[in-house]
Structure formats: structure tokens, C-alpha cells
Design goal:
662 residues; alpha/beta; Rossmann fold; five-stranded parallel β-sheet; five-stranded mixed β-sheet; 27 helices; 48% helix; globular
Length: 662
């Protein structure tokens, strides 16, 4: 038998990232997958440009957790890789900022590799937004050139190149030189073509075209590319930054816009993004983990509004919603407004369990992935018949857990072990520590406040910068969750915080707290000076890599528990997590010094990790640390591994194994 202490092929029974699913099991939920693909194809094959409103969302129901909802999304992504712009959207946390949160997640997805098989973008590879921008130029500019509506020095040559190399033609130096030289006339011509097709973009078509062209042809200019993404997300830009993109002052996001209007602008940006793709391919928008909307009537109601507005006001997208039947029918859909009920197609797609034959194939797939040479049939003989003794189908998760018990007779993992595995996943992910304002707000409301026995409530300050209040005795802490660093917005934030501080009646003390992450841009000096002069009114808390990993891990852990992905009581997990995060909560509440922000992983450490994992093919985290310089901490080793595309980290509660991918 293979050394079981080294590899546990059945430790992962939850799909964390649909883009990285394992090899498919033949026939598993094939009717559901075929139905989704057929529905998408019907919509995608409609006449272009697709300027009409989209169809109702398709609902996928699972009879209970573990039937493969997220895995089905992964299969759908694989099947539609070249035919759709793929968007995987986890739940928003605050009903009042739903569109801000969704837009943030959508733009993050658009900035991911255009190939489903690439977890991270390599130099020179296109992102989904690259593909969208280039195809818009290709589809519209090509016709304008061929019809003589856009001047080109050699129309016949460009026509021939478009015909033979429809994608590569946009990458040639000749095309880039021409586009740079004729940028204004190209933008003007495409603007008129879009207008003729009744495609309206806000704030203007011209602004969108400028930003998309700037993004598409600045692959190695990270700063310029980030400006494009910030503009799309409706983050404020400096006037000089707008000039870099060729934008007018009126086309820049407003700096001190009230929160509700910012949320509405985010929806407008989303609609514009969908409309831009009308000449290319539809957006596939998948809402997963929807059980989290069942935690409050307000969240569920807001989700219904989101689906309804997408259906009525946005175009060129196909929406899939996954849910567990019990929670959906009892806590989510009943809280939709009646007018929003039609946002969901009347006939849901229902998932089914796997058969005994499929279960054995799943075991074979796991053995192959982990390079285990045991005989599948012999291994399955002792336990698989018992799983199917009184039925012909069961959930994927139940099969995996039965297989895991047979593999090593391991005890059920503790809450602490499960939490540690979530932390390691975030530390080992190239995007796992990206600042997420919604998750930080969740932590303040559900973890920090309760761990301090503080009373917690949602509020909305006049400008919308402060959204949570925690109170202990006569002292209250207000919280804001601004993710960006524009000095004018921060100037307004500090002024609003100071007003609350000055208005507090003695003996009450009111201070406002804001969060920054170790990997965010440093706040401008003028902002830091403002904060330094008002320490009694404003508190900036910097979270390092370990703290971010703990907060994000706590959120994901609770999310999975609420979906019954673990056989644990939610109250038990919440109590544990509040203890784990208590030290961070105390630092937020107090004035203690900030920890050193997470340092960048050194090149030499990354090289050592890469060389060690490559030479061993499979190595446990414990053995890896022994091979690294003395004093190397677990979090640094995992972060180094997460930056190497050829390393996959399997973080299960019982063991963490790093695998070198062929």
C-alpha cells in the first residue's frame, strides 16, 4: 500500500474554487449540466449585438449539501470556456452596498486569465477583460475599416489579416502603432457604431472605449492597468491619473458621492460592462453559496432585487443560481418581494446523487491525481457496498467521507484543525489575501463585536462612510470599510469621523475605525497627517497577512457550516472563531501598536520552495519547513508556494501537502 501518512486523497470534500475542479466523473449530474448548456446556447445564439434584456435566472437545487453545486459550476465553466465570459460571484454582506460588492467581484473575475485552465495569469497571457476589449475592437473596427468608415493605410492588407488571423492581428506591431496614432479617430468611429446599435454606456461610450483600449494594450504597465480597473469599479482617480487614460474631468468617478448613489453607479458600471460584450460573447454570471442570504430577511430581499434588476435592466448575460432546497424554500425565496419572484425561471434544475459505479470512478480519479498505485477495486470492496446497501444514489460528499475513513480510519477533525486548513488555503492562494471590505465588515459585526461583548448595530452616516457601531458602556467605536486610497475621499471620511467625535456628549467617547491591509497601497501622506492630528477621532488598523488569513478563514468556515458542509453546530464554530479572533478585536478596540505588516516573500525563499516541491513531487508542509532555512514560518512558506503556478496546495484538516503539477 502507498504511504498513507504522506497523502490523503480524500481530505478535500469541498469545492473552494470552481476553476480548479478535479477530473469529472462520467455521467455525474450530466442532465443538469446539459440543461444549463442548452439554455446558455439558446441565449448565446441570439442575434448580435445582444441588446435585449436577459432571460430569467436558472435555479439549480440540491436536495442537501454535498451534491456538487460548485462542482457543477466548474464543469459548466470548462464546457463554456471559449464561449462565455465567466463570473463566479460569492454572496455580498451588506444589502445597502450590494452592487458595489458585486461589481468588485465581477471586475476581479474579469482580471483573471481568459483560459479556465490557468489559475493565475502568466506574462503575456490575456485576461477575460483583455479578450473582451480586443474582440470589441476586432468586431467593430474591422467592419468600419472594411466599409471605408475608418481610415487605414492598407485596407486590403488589414482585411486579409482579419480573415486569416482574427485574434493575432490585434497583437501585431502594425496594428498597435496604427491604433496608437489614430486613437481619437478610432474611438470616435466605434462610438458612432455603438450609438447606431443603440448601445448606451455610462458615463459615456467614449470613456469606456478609452479605458478598454488602455487596459488591453498595457499588459506590462501594472500601474496603468490598475487605473483602468479602478475606474471600472467607480473608484476615484486623480485628475492626472484620468489624463493617463485620456479621460475628461466629467468622465471621472465622483469623489464624495453619497453611499446610495455610489451603489447605483456601480450598477450602471455593471450594465455597461455587459452591454460592451454584446458584440462578443455573453457573460455567464453564477451566484453560489446562496444559503448565506438566508441569514437575514434583508439580505434575502436584497438578493431578490439584484436578480430582478439584472433581468429587467441589464443585457447580454445568463444567470445561474445554486442553492440547497431546504434553505432556499424556507429562508431565501420567501423573503423576495412578490415583484422579484419572476426573476427566477419557474422550473428549477435538480441535482441527483452519484451511483456506485460513479463512486468507484471518483476514487480512481483521486488515486490518479495523487499518484497512488493501489488497486481501486480492491480498496473499494471493504466499504463501498455498505454506502449503497439500501439505495442506488448518494451525495458525493458522503462517498468521499466514507472513503476517507476507509483510507486511514482517521478521527473526525477538530474545529481547530478545520480552521487551520482554511487559513492555509488563503495563505497559499495568489489572491487569497486580497482586501475584501465586505468580509472585514462581516468580521466586525459577527466576530469582533461579540468577542468583546459589545452591542453591535448597522448604521448609515450622512455620507455613508460609516456603517457599523459597536458600543461598550460609554464608549462607542464606529466602523468604515473604505478599500481605496484617494486623498479627497479620505479627507471627507476624516471630516465625517471628526463630526461624530465632536458631537458625542460627555462622558461618551466616539471614535471611528478603518482598516488597511499589508498588501494595499499606502495612504497618501496628507491623509496620514490628517489622521495623526486626530487620533482621538480616527483610528487606522493595519492587518498583516496572518490576521487577514484568520479573518477570511473564519468567514469561509462559517459560510460552509451554514451550508451544512461540515457536521458541526454553527454555535460551536462561532464561539471558537470569536476566541481565535479575540486578539485582533482587542487591538482594534485599543490603541496598542500595530504589528509589522506582512513582508514580501523573498525571491530566495520562493526559489527554495519551488525547488524542494519540484524535486519531491509531493511534500507535506512539515517536511517542507524542515528543508527551508531555520526560522521560516508556516505562513511565509505557504505564501511563497501560492505565488508559484505549478504548485498546488492541498490543505485538509489532517494534513497539508504541496504537489508539483506536471
Amino acid at each position: 500500500m502507498t504511504n498513507k501518512t504522506h497523502r490523503d486523497p480524500f481530505g478535500d470534500d469541498i469545492v473552494v474554487e470552481p476553476r480548479e475542479i478535479e477530473d469529472p466523473v462520467v455521467g455525474l449530474n450530466k442532465p443538469a449540466l446539459d440543461s444549463l448548456i442548452a439554455g446558455f446556447r439558446r441565449f448565446a445564439n441570439s442575434l448580435t449585438p445582444r441588446v435585449r434584456s436577459a432571460c430569467s435566472a436558472t435555479l439549480v437545487l440540491s436536495p442537501e449539501p454535498g451534491y456538487g453545486k460548485s462542482y457543477l459550476i466548474g464543469r459548466l465553466f470548462q464546457q463554456l470556456d471559449d464561449d462565455a465570459t465567466l463570473l463566479y460571484v460569492r454572496p455580498f454582506q451588506d444589502p445597502s452596498s450590494s452592487w458595489i460588492s458585486i461589481l468588485e467581484k465581477v471586475v476581479h473575475e474579469l482580471d483573471r486569465p481568459d483560459s479556465i485552465h490557468k489559475p493565475a495569469r502568466d506574462p503575456g497571457e490575456l485576461t477575460q477583460l483583455d479578450a473582451l476589449a480586443r474582440r470589441l475592437l476586432f468586431e467593430v473596427a474591422r467592419d468600419l475599416i472594411l466599409n471605408g468608415k475608418l481610415a487605414h493605410p492598407d485596407r486590403s492588407a488589414s482585411s486579409s489579416m482579419f480573415e486569416k488571423f482574427p485574434n493575432a492581428s490585434l497583437e501585431t506591431s502594425e496594428w498597435r502603432t496604427w491604433l496608437q496614432r489614430e486613437n481619437e479617430s478610432v474611438v470616435a468611429a466605434i462610438d458612432q457604431a455603438l450609438k447606431h446599435q443603440h448601445i448606451e454606456l455610462k458615463p459615456t461610450r467614449r470613456a469606456w472605449l478609452k479605458v478598454l483600449i488602455a487596459y488591453a494594450y498595457s499588459e506590462e504597465d501594472i500601474t496603468r492597468r490598475q487605473l483602468c480597473l479602478d475606474w471600472i469599479k467607480y473608484c476615484p482617480l486623480e485628475v492626472d491619473e484620468g489624463k493617463v487614460l485620456g479621460l475628461k474631468l466629467s468622465e471621472l468617478p465622483e469623489t464624495e458621492l453619497p453611499y446610495e448613489q455610489r451603489n447605483e453607479r456601480a450598477f450602471e458600471r455593471l450594465c455597461s460592462l455587459f452591454a460592451i460584450g454584446a458584440f462578443y460573447r455573453p457573460f455567464l454570471l453564477c451566484f453560489d453559496q446562496t444559503e448565506l442570504y438566508g441569514t437575514s430577511p434583508e439580505l434575502a430581499r436584497s438578493f431578490g432585487v439584484v436578480l430582478s434588476r439584472l433581468r429587467r435592466e441589464a443585457s447580454n448575460h445568463f444567470v445561474v443560481v445554486t442553492a440547497n432546497t431546504g434553505v432556499w424554500e424556507s429562508k431565501v425565496r420567501p423573503n423576495f418581494e412578490k415583484a422579484d419572484q419572476d426573476a427566477i425561471a419557474p422550473e428549477p434544475i435538480e441535482l441527483r446523487g452519484m451511483t456506485k459505479v460513479q463512486a468507484q470512478q471518483l476514487v480512481g480519479n483521486r488515486f490518479a491525481a495523487w499518484e497512488i498505485d493501489d488497486q481501486v477495486a480492491a480498496f473499494c470492496t471493504s466499504w463501498l457496498p455498505g454506502v449503497f446497501a439500501s439505495r442506488d444514489q448518494c451525495s458525493v460528499r458522503e462517498v468521499l467521507r466514507a472513503a476517507r475513513r476507509a483510507w486511514g480510519s482517521l478521527a473526525e477533525p477538530t474545529v481547530a484543525e478545520i480552521f487551520a486548513s482554511y487559513r492555509r488555503r488563503h495563505l497559499a492562494s495568489s489572491t487569497g489575501l486580497t482586501f475584501d471590505a465586505g468580509v472585514i465588515e462581516w468580521a466586525v459585526v459577527n466576530m469582533f463585536g461579540p468577542s468583546l461583548d459589545a452591542s453591535v448595530e448597522h448604521i448609515r452616516s450622512p455620507k455613508g462612510y460609516l456603517t457599523v457601531r459597536c458600543k461598550i458602556g460609554d464608549r462607542e467605536e464606529l466602523f468604515g470599510f473604505e478599500a481605496k486610497d484617494h486623498w479627497k475621499r479620505w479627507d471627507a471620511i476624516v471630516r465625517e469621523a471628526e463630526r461624530y467625535h465632536q458631537d458625542a456628549k460627555a462622558p461618551a467617547v466616539t471614535r471611528s475605525c478603518f482598516f488597511r491591509a499589508h498588501n494595499q497601497n499606502r495612504l497618501p501622506d496628507r491623509v496620514l497627517e490628517l489622521v495623526k492630528a486626530r487620533t482621538s477621532a480616527v483610528h487606522i488598523v493595519e492587518l498583516n497577512a496572518d490576521e487577514l488569513a484568520s479573518v477570511f478563514a473564519a468567514h469561509d468556515f462559517i459560510a460552509d457550516v451554514s451550508q451544512s458542509n461540515h457536521y458541526l453546530a454553527e454555535s460551536e464554530v462561532r464561539t471558537f472563531l470569536r476566541r481565535e479572533l479575540h486578539a485582533i478585536a482587542m487591538r482594534v478596540w485599543s490603541d496598542t501598536s500595530r504589528p509589522e505588516p506582512g513582508a514580501e516573500v523573498s525571491v530566495s525563499l520562493a526559489e527554495l520552495v519551488e525547488r524542494t516541491v519540484q524535486s519531491k513531487r509531493f511534500v507535506t508542509l512539515t517536511l517542507l519547513l524542515q528543508a527551508l532555512p531555520k526560522g521560516t514560518v508556516e505562513s511565509d512558506a505557504l505564501r511563497a508556494a501560492g505565488a508559484i503556478p505549478k504548485i498546488r496546495v492541498h490543505a485538509s484538516p489532517s494534513n497539508t501537502v504541496l504537489q508539483w503539477l506536471q
